[in-house]
Every structure is written in structure tokens, then in C-alpha cells.
Amino acid sequence: MKKLVLLLAIILSSCVTNNPISFKVIDTDFSKGRVSYEQNITLKDLEKFHGHLCDGLVVGALAMQQGMKILYPNQAIDRTNLRIVSKPSPCLTDVAIYITGGRYQFQTFYVEPTIPGVYVVQRIDTKKTVSISIKKDVIPREIDSLGNLAVQQKLSSCELKHLKKLEDDFITFLLKSNPEPLFTVTNIEDFDWQPNSKNDYLKTDILNKNLPKCNN
Ligand SMILES: [Zn+2]
């Protein structure tokens, strides 16, 4: 009986996350080094860098997974050879710079709200460029509408708690799903790299930081 319970627990826990999300990346091996140092980046690493786990972080990571299948199929992602344009979300931008190595100060990263999809990523050597979008209706409408109200600081503590639960459930759904049908990856020919220096976007994930705790 004990064995059966253990087996069931193992099966159930393996169902929770079908997509472990990990990226093999390659970088230079020291401050003046050659491209040769390989590492693995997981969702946990992204969470540490970003500050928390959220649906935007998972959407960004899954979007990046789909794009990298085209730019670096079955090989390590070369973080010395990519540049990226991202939508302004604090979660999406953190995934963008962490996984690609793109940085604002080296003109390998900029933010542009009007790009198609969430990211436009380009290999610097071949100029192969893809835009990655999340399909319409994948993100639950209530998350969008409550998220907008949260940004306007119009939600109470307990409404925020409800929004967090919705986001957590959405994360579970995303990690259990096959991500491929949820995203569209489109080749862009002759992409016009037009870095801008706009840097006054709202950091939406800290706006409610001083709200009291919901005790319900
Ligand atoms: Zn976030």
C-alpha cells in the first residue's frame, strides 16, 4: 500500500510540471575569453534574477524557448551573438536580457511597445530574426482586466490576493501545457534594428508593494 501511495505521488508530481524550462547557454570563459563556457539556466534562476515567480516570467521563458528553437536548434544559445527588442513589461524584459545576453548599454537590447508580439530576437552573425507572440486568448481575460486595475492601484489587498491566485493557476496551466501551440514564431526579413533610449516605463510589479496584507 505504501509503495502504491509513493508511486501515485511520483506520478502526480511529475504531472505538475511537464515543461521544466531550461536553457543551455554558452558564453566567453573569462573577461577576455573565448566562447566556450556552457551553463544551464532554469526557471528558478530566472526567478532569482527577477525577484519573484510570476506569469509574465513564465510567458517570457516559454516564448524564448520557442524562438531559440529556430535561432539555436539543438545547440547552446550563444549569449555573445544575440540582440533583442522586448515589450516593456518588467518580467518580459528580465527574461529577454538574461537569456540572450542583450544589454541596453551595448545596444543589444531595447524596449519598444509597438513590436509584433512579445520579443523580436536577432542573431548578430546571420541576421536571422524572429518575432515571438503569445496567441490571442491564451492569457485569461480576468488576469488582464484585474492586472490593469492593479496597475492603476485600484485593487484592495484581498483583490490582489485573488489576482495572485489566478496568476498562479495560469502558471500551472502553462507549465503543464505543450507550449508550441500557444505561441507563434515568425521570421522577419531585413529587420530594421532601431535602438531607442526611452527608459521611463512604469515598473508595474512594485506599485502595490506597500499595501497591507489580506487576512481573509
Ligand atoms: Zn514579474
Note down, in words, how this protein is organized:
The chain is of the alpha/beta class. β1 (22-28) and β2 (35-42) form a beta hairpin. The longest helix is centred in the last third of the chain and has 20 residues, at 157-176. It contains six helices and eight strands, in the order αββααββαβββααβ. The radius of gyration is 19 Å and the shape is globular. It has helices at 2-16, 43-50, 55-71, 90-100, 141-151, 157-176, and strands spanning 22-28, 35-42, 77-78, 82-86, 109-111, 119-123, 129-134, 183-187. It has one domain (19-192): 60s Ribosomal Protein L30, Chain: A, CATH 3.30.1330. It binds zinc ion (ZN). Zinc ion binds next to α3 and α4. Zinc ion (ZN) binds at residues 50, 52, 54, 56-57, 90-91, 205.
The helix content, as a percent range, equals: 25-40%
> What is the quaternary state of this protein?
single chain
Specify Rg, calculated over alpha carbons.
19 Å
Mean pLDDT: 93
Largest sheet: 5 strands, mixed
CATH class, named: Alpha Beta
Tally the helices.
6
Unique bound compounds: zinc ion
The count of domains is 1
CATH architecture designation: 2-Layer Sandwich
Which sequence of strands runs across the widest sheet?
A: 5-4-6-7-8
Give the low-pLDDT segments. none
